Amino acid sequence: MCDLVGMSHEVCPIVTAEDRVRLEAIIADRNRAHKHVIRARMVLHSAARLSVAEVARRAAVGRPAVWRWQRRFAEAGVDGLLRDATRKPGKAPVPVGVVQRLIALTCSEPPGEVTHWTGRAMARAMGVSLRTVQRIWQSHKLQPHRLRTFKRSTDPDFAAKLEDVVGLYVAPPRHALVLSIDEKSQIQALDRTQPGLPLKPGKAGTITHDYVRNGTTTLFAALNTLDGTVIGRCMQRHRHQEFLRFLNAVERAVPAGKLIHALLDNYGTHKHPNVIAWLERHPRWTFHFTPKSSSWLNAVETFFSALTRRRIRRGSFHSIVDLQTAINRYIAEHNHDPKPFTWTKPAQQILANANHLNASVH
Fold it and tell me: What CA–CA distance (Å, rounded) separates 74 from 11?
């Protein structure tokens, strides 16, 4: 039997011999939860008529905790020390109706002259906290701050051209090269007005916002999809004359006897009458054009993207010659360890996605 003897907050629980054996066993058990050991020690110290302050000091807890577990021991004995009292959650869950209204409101146009909802604006409109809005958006994968762009091809022969291009990637003809050809025009030779600071732990590298523009150059490039090598030439302009010079350079670089299937976009330079006449004089060449507004099908665009991100964007070039030299060095380094281009998406799946997009727009 358990009882409390004392006045005010200075109390002394009465511990029977059986209770003492159980409490000492709890303290000696190395696998027992630490909180259970602390509670058993508080009761034994209290039974030894130590003051509440001394019990709290030895147990490294506050005095309210000592009073709470003295009372629990008196009410429920040793078993009461081994279980926590049930309590209501600190905050009631958001009602399902509120969640549904918040989701519907997020997917609708916000009031006033704004284009999308923000977390704080939604919290004010719904009368909930910002964190509640963020949790609901995260659980339902809603991201009103993000916007994805898209471009629909209006080419009436989109399907046929798509299958032609993807077919060359997936199953290239034997004894032939598949070259993805395009030009990256208006590459600016930007010289920063001051040197930037290097990357340091805890600090990003820096680069000046202002610059001096020292002219532009155009890179013509042909990516061999079979082995990943690139043939590149920098020129001042990107007319059909420069394009023909580049085609002649590729013609000299490709071994004799190899057929060449060239993938190009619909830029007017690629269809100039002089280019068509050149194509007729070189029967081993075959041009394959991507659908209109579908330059993403051209594999060399991945090389242009890597060149921009890894060499040009953060560079500082004092002249056009400096820029062209850097581009040529990057191409040479790329060709030292090339990676074959691998296309994984079937043409039918691309067509299905395009048809789904067209249906959703209409």
Answer: 11
Instruction: Collect contacts of 105-114 with beta carbons under 8 A, ≥24 apart.
Output: 106/137, 106/142, 106/144, 107/142
Q: Which long-range contacts (CB under 8 A, 24 or more apart) does 342-346 make?
A: 343/166, 343/169, 343/170, 343/299, 345/166, 346/166, 346/170
User: Helix 130-139 vs helix 119-126: angle between axes, to the nearest 10 degrees?
Assistant: 110
For residue 123, what are its two tokens? Answer: 């919290």
For the CA atoms of the chain, what is the radius of gyration? 37
Q: Letter for the amino acid at 213? A: R
Q: Is the separation of the CB atoms in 278 and 262 below 8 Å?
A: no
pLDDT grade, residue 257 (50/70/90)?
confident
β-partners of residue 286 are 261
Q: pTM (2 decimals)?
A: 0.69
Q: What digits encode the pLDDT tens for the residues 166-193?
A: 999 999 998 899 999 999 999 999 999 9
Report pLDDT digits (tens) over 309-356: 999 999 999 999 999 999 999 999 999 999 999 999 888 888 888 777
What Å distances lie between residue 361 and 73, 152, 356, CA to CA? 69, 10, 9
**Each residue's pLDDT tens digit, 5-34:** 443 455 677 888 898 999 999 999 989 899
Q: What is the phi/psi pair of residue 291, to 5°?
A: -60, 160
